[in-house]
Amino acid sequence: MGEEEVVAMRGAVGRRSARRLRVGGVAAVTAALTVSLVTAAPAGADPASAVGGQNLPVPLERAGGFVGWGSPGDALTPPASLDGVALREVALTAETALALTGDGRVVVWGVDGQTNVIPASVGSLDVVDLAASSINAGVVTRDGRVVVWGASSSTKEDPTDVPAGLSGVTQLAIAHTSAFALKDDGSVVAWGRQGDLGVVTGVLEVPDGLRASAISAADFNAYALTTDGTVAGWGRWGGGGGDSNAPLPAATQIPGNVTAVAAIQQGGVALLADGSITAWGLYGAEMYPDLGGKRAVAIAGGLADAYAVLDEDGVLHFGGPGAVDPALVSPAEVVGAPVAQFAVGGGQVGVIQTEMLRGSAPTVAGTARVGSVLTATPGTFSGEPDEVSSRWLADGQPIGDPASGTAPASLTLGADLAGKRISYESTATKDGVEPVVSTSVQTAAVSVPPPPVPAKVASMTAVTKVKIKKAAKKVMVKGAVNAAASPAGQAQVSIVKGKKTIVTATVPVAADGSFKLVAKKFGKKAIKKTKAKNKATGYRGKYQVTVTYDGNGGVSASSGAATFKVKK
């Protein structure tokens, strides 16, 4: 594997017996210690030119499956939900693992602890970097904010005490009691506390004027790869002199000579431009692994007394007194594979191998109703597929000719799709690789809109006849509603004399439009309503009858009126 294959590594190693697990496209890492993020660039190149650069996660085209090996146990067995899902970044803690998927989700698994309960707010964030220690974990958002969770103290400062207003962050590192943020201007912000158990380490004392392109932190020490290709350190084993602060190796202070730096528990290691490594700290020269004459292309460290080196052939080597565990030997399936990123922990190693897997699933937008248009966004895939084709499905079956090629991104829902659930399916293909299929969530069953309401026809209401009995004992009003459609319904009829209403009633309107009102004892009602002085003939006079037709679903309302006289 060439240097261009390497994106990033994390971690530290320990001693236990070997075990290798794989769940679908994801293999299980079975234990871990705190990890630190380090990014390596090809020899002689600026660190930011490495695939993935200084801003993890790795690009989707470099993402892939997770292979793990090392000590036995199932604490970090990935969930089945990650089978076939592309991972862009993985961070390990002592008993849990965090991963950033190709569709931007943060997933955690492992033994219940302080880092594996992700705050609900993280679910809605656009995450670009992960970091973890044995008791804390955190993320960096695309807009440069930081969220840290896990162990916290009400009496001491800790990594969860993210400085108010911190922004512009591109990378996060979390140590034992402290955390560090690399900002887009190259400055580094530290928070938490200086040490623990009465030991003051100076781990928060970031050098003045530091401009960094990557950071790494372990127990009570932190390092930065500066923008001029040297190493800056602070805290214990930070190069400040004293028993635990011997000067950093001279090779780390030559501008342009360092391409990556990693912190370990009591020291650090740097990858040099010529593919060699140099280390410092408590163990000194004991820390160097035998690379068999191969050039190193990436390194990683963490909260342990060991570190890892990836050589140009894709073989992992481990340095330091904690690196003698035979369980850490790379399995055959990893050697020479396209490594995008790897993490190391207490007796375990986890590698992200670039392969074609699901990234973001296709999506469908619009209303599932006959006559509406649905719009789809195709799925994405890691591993740089040769081709991605898509098609519409109805209840899981292709719509139209399956052999017609990629379907358009929009679909007009015809009556033949009523009652069916629609989805969009994308398939990635690559020479020599099994196709990978990704399908959107199905819509609700396609509904049928109610038939359009026809326009109402006009109507005309008229009073056609008023018949009066002697002494106005009874008055009968007849009329009709004329329309091009049946006016069956009802009408409101009122008879007034002057300003006084004598009779008001609701009458039915027949299908042929006819209606009739019969008002009995009309004369007596008129005398009473008008308070006529002449009780014998007070009902005589002029009246007006008004008919208001209410209309129905197909016929508009209308009204008509007429006058009549009662003479006898």
Please explain how this structure is put together:
The chain has 568 residues and is mainly β. It is 2% helix and 42% strand. It contains one helix and 40 strands. The protein has a six-stranded mixed β-sheet with strand order 2-4-26-25-1-3, with no helix packed on it. The protein has a four-stranded antiparallel β-sheet with strand order 30-29-32-33, with no helix packed on it. A hairpin with a 2-residue loop joins strand 32 and strand 33. The longest helix is centred in the C-terminal third of the chain and has 9 residues. The N terminus is likely disordered.
Q: What kind of assembly state do the chains in view correspond to? A: single chain
Strand content: 35-45%
Secondary structure: helix percent: under 10%
Q: Which sequence of strands runs across the widest sheet?
A: 2-4-26-25-1-3
List the helices and strands and how they pair.
Blueprint: E1 8-11, E2 19-21, E3 37-39, E4 64-70, E5 87-92, E6 96-101, E7 106-110, E8 127-132, E9 136-141, E10 146-150, E11 169-174, E12 178-183, E13 188-192, E14 195-196, E15 199-200, E16 212-217, E17 221-226, E18 231-235, E19 258-264, E20 267-272, E21 277-281, E22 296-300, E23 307-311, E24 316-319, E25 339-345, E26 348-354, E27 363-365, E28 373-377, E29 387-394, E30 397-398, E31 410-412, E32 422-430, E33 433-439, E34 459-468, E35 474-483, E36 489-497, E37 500-509, E38 514-520, H1 522-530, E39 541-549, E40 558-566
Parallel strand pairs: 1-25
Antiparallel strand pairs: 1-3, 2-4, 4-26, 5-6, 6-7, 8-9, 9-10, 11-12, 12-13, 14-15, 16-17, 17-18, 19-20, 20-21, 22-23, 23-24, 25-26, 27-28, 28-31, 29-30, 29-32, 32-33, 34-35, 35-38, 36-37, 36-39, 39-40
